[in-house]
Design goal:
CATH topology of the largest domain: Lysozyme-like
Order of helices and strands: HHEHEHEEEHHEHH
Bound molecules: zinc ion
Strand order of the largest sheet: 1-4-3-5-2-6
Number of helices: 8
Strand content: 5-15%
Helix content: 40-55%
Structural class: alpha/beta
Distance between the termini: 38 Å
Length: about 240
């Protein structure tokens, strides 16, 4: 190939790379575009809580690393958000989660999403926790505002941490999940305390939740793609 023709053929890929760069600057990553409004409120006893949770996880699971592969849905067993947060704030050893959603669809983040939390016995080192203010599956699943916020939050978390639909589970599904398990000391603790595993967000409820979530996530993603391809996006 002649030098002139070679220069000509190199120009097009360079132009494409420059255009891709401009697009990347103009559009935030898909995960950022999916992020719903989130209020911030850190839990009490923060340094002690983190230290305790790491030691607890080492004892129960043999690791203190957090590798988010699951999003576990819960309800609080309370009628207000304040009651749930007060309970989690009783001591650094109390259970806790990353997010809570109230009846007005307000999402509050209680801890960074990339930090190991103490909320779903058997899968905690892999699970981001989302609580819904309520006392039954039926109550939460019939609250449209709360659910709309729940789907938006979960879609964003799925995108951000690359978690597939099957990685969104209910607290009531934890004991049948392949990742469920403990160290032998952990099993001894479960046995000696007579710990009873929770049943909030059962398998039946989660079948409905996941099928609605799938639709919401794809429609949100479609909307973002449409906005990005609309004329004037680059301006
Ligand atoms: Zn729960």
């Amino acid at each position: 190939m002649a030098a002139g023709a070679e220069r000509q053929s190199l120009r097009l890929p360079r132009l494409l790379i420059a255009l891709a760069g401009l697009l990347a600057l103009a559009a935030p990553p898909a995960s950022a575009a999916l992020r719903p409004p989130i209020e911030q409120q850190r839990l009490a006893f923060w340094p002690e809580r983190v230290a305790h949770t790491r030691a607890w996880s080492q004892f129960m699971y043999g690791t203190d690393l957090f590798q988010p592969r699951l999003i576990v849905q819960h309800w609080t067993e309370s009628t207000t958000q304040d009651a749930a947060i007060s309970y989690w704030n009783t001591s650094p050893e109390a259970t806790w989660v990353h997010f809570i959603i109230d009846q007005q669809g307000r999402i509050t983040q209680l801890a960074p999403a990339g930090v190991l939390a103490k909320h779903a016995f058997g899968v905690s080192p892999w699970a981001i926790g989302v609580e819904h203010v309520g006392t039954s599956d039926g109550e939460v699943m019939s609250d449209r505002q709360m659910l709309a916020a729940s789907y938006r939050l979960t879609c964003w978390l799925r995108k951000r941490f690359k978690i597939p639909l099957r990685g969104v589970i209910g607290h009531g599904e934890v004991t049948s999940h392949p990742r469920f398990g403990f160290t032998s000391e952990g099993w001894d603790w479960i046995e000696s305390t007579g710990y009873r595993f929770h049943e909030d967000f059962s398998a039946q409820t989660m079948r409905t939740y996941r099928s609605r979530l799938k639709k919401v996530c794809s429609s949100l993603t479609d909307k973002i793609l449409q906005q990005r391809s609309a004329p004037g996006t680059l301006r």
